[in-house]
TrEMBL record:
Protein name (database record): Probable transcriptional regulatory protein ACFFLI_09690
UniProt-annotated location(s): Cytoplasm
Superkingdom as given in the UniProt entry: Bacteria
Alphabetical keyword list: Cytoplasm, DNA-binding, Transcription, Transcription regulation
Pfam families: TACO1_YebC_N, Transcrip_reg
Chief location category: cytoplasm
SUPFAM superfamilies: YebC-like
Region Disordered, annotated ranges: 1-21
Domain TACO1/YebC-like second and third: 81-236
GO MF term list: DNA binding
UniProt similarity note: Belongs to the TACO1 family.
UniProt domain TACO1/YebC-like N-terminal: residue ranges: 5-75
Keyword flag Acetylation: no
Length: 244
């Protein structure tokens, strides 16, 4: 595992994301819909649905919204979403991976292509970027008010079935096999830990330094992609320069 801190990037954009709560609810609704379509409406037997429901609750999504999305996935409504992945290079040659849930692939492809073009990047062929990322379960436990040192946390993570631990002054970041995420999460919660984040994600194997003069353009690309209602997740293999 590289020294990449996903938590640092998350915190860097958290305020902006909080300002887009309505869009976040819409994106989570689609994820709920897809999880139900794939594995059924019972979270006890559908680990992916359980994870998305936890994500919805963490975002303070109203229970009625959650129920409505689950009901849609259970029924035979007119909506029919597809999962689509786009790969490309942002400013400075940074690898960018885009996951979308869409009912109109032509619309989504055009919007994603436009976002890359606006920022001086470009879309790439399938497989050009995805091999640079690994699918992982990802858990964050904030260290504030937590009386646990790194050695103790590492033992608890390994006992729970986790693969790797990274620590900073702000948080412990835990990585798991994707299929073990729910089990590791449940084991850590049973051990008394309060989890800030528990999700499936894509982790870059290596990071590319972002030239200082390309930072604003890259962040503009990421923002434009995340503002798209069809886009569910954006991942970049970027090592941003220190702000100091």
């Amino acid at each position: 595992m590289s020294g990449h801190s996903k938590w640092h990037n998350i915190q860097g954009r958290k305020n902006a994301q909080d300002a887009k709560r309505g869009k976040i609810f819409q994106k989570i609704s689609r994820e709920l819909y897809m999880a139900v379509k794939a594995g059924g409406p019972d979270p006890d037997s559908n680990a992916q649905l359980r994870l998305v429901m936890d994500k919805a609750k963490a975002a303070n999504m109203p229970k009625d919204n959650i129920k409505r999305a689950v009901d849609k996935g259970s029924g035979s409504g007119a909506e029919n979403y597809e999962e689509v992945t786009y790969e490309g290079y942002g400013p400075g040659g940074i690898a960018v991976l885009v996951h979308a849930l869409t009912d109109n692939k032509n619309r989504t492809a055009a919007a994603v292509r436009s976002a890359f073009t606006h920022s001086g990047g470009s879309l790439a062929a399938t497989g050009a970027v995805s091999y640079m990322f690994d699918r992982k379960g990802y858990i964050v436990i904030k260290r504030e008010d937590l009386d646990t040192d790194e050695d103790t946390m590492l033992m608890d993570v390994l006992d729970a079935g986790g693969d790797d631990l990274q620590s900073s002054d702000e948080a412990f970041e835990i990585y798991t096999d994707p299929k073990q995420l729910a089990a590791v999460r449940d084991a850590l919660e049973a051990n008394g830990y309060k989890l800030e984040t528990a999700e499936l994600t894509m982790i870059p194997e290596n990071l590319t330094d972002v030239p200082a003069d390309k930072v604003d353009k890259l962040q503009h690309l990421i923002d434009e992609l995340e503002d798209n209602d069809d886009v569910s997740e954006v991942y970049e293999a970027a090592n941003y320069p220190d702000e100091d």
